[in-house]
Amino acid sequence: MLAFVDIEHRKVIDNPEKGPHHLKDYFQRVDNIAAAVGLPCTPVHYLDFSLDWLRANEIKAFFISGNTPDWVEYDWDEFKPLQQAVTSGAYPVMGFCGGHQLIGMTFGAACDALGPLAPGEPDPMPEYHPGMRKEKGYLPFQLHAPDHPLFEGFPPGGPVIMESHYWEVKALPAGFALLASTNWCRIQVMQHRELPIYSTQGHPEAYTETYPDGRRFIRNFARATGVIRG
Fold this sequence. Notes:
Blueprint: E1 2-6, H1 10-13, H2 18-37, E2 41-45, H3 51-56, E3 61-64, H4 80-88, E4 93-96, H5 98-106, E5 111-113, E6 135-140, E7 142-143, E8 160-165, E9 167-169, E10 176-181, E11 189-192, E12 197-200, H6 213-224
Parallel strand pairs: 1-2, 1-3, 3-4, 4-12
Antiparallel strand pairs: 5-9, 6-8, 7-10, 10-11, 11-12
Helix pairs in contact: 2-6
């Protein structure tokens, strides 16, 4: 059994307009993770998550979702059970987008906006933090470790993964290795050197028939961490 931890703020989930859209995407991505790995995946909100929950549900690995509001809007004490599970090293974990930033901050890294748009630079999401630089759409990785098991089976250019963010991890946390970048985001994929912790600023769980690379990326993670074989 796998778990996909939803770190979206309750104010979004409970919003009558935004909530149904979020939940539709979230449950589709739960199914995508299950299909990629070949194991059942259960949804869980971070407020209901803990090491005891992992043990009780016989979870083999977990994934951490993205989120919409800025981090200042959260009560960080409520993330302690999730952070404890991440740092325990007892479970393979992969963070996506906001989950990637959460892992970075858990290990002491700073996170902040990509920065303001340059004069004349188009805004791919003008309704979301206008005037700020974003990465949006299916974009190729620039690999720093092309022989890493995470990138097995991809062409030299690496996977093409969905991006949708205006923040990033600003400095590589101590103990982590940099595996890939994108044009605007240097710390696009990282891995802890000793613990089974991986994360990406992208959304490989949002793969589609047209852009299927996220499926292999997630499966490669499961293979690299021993969750599955073959």
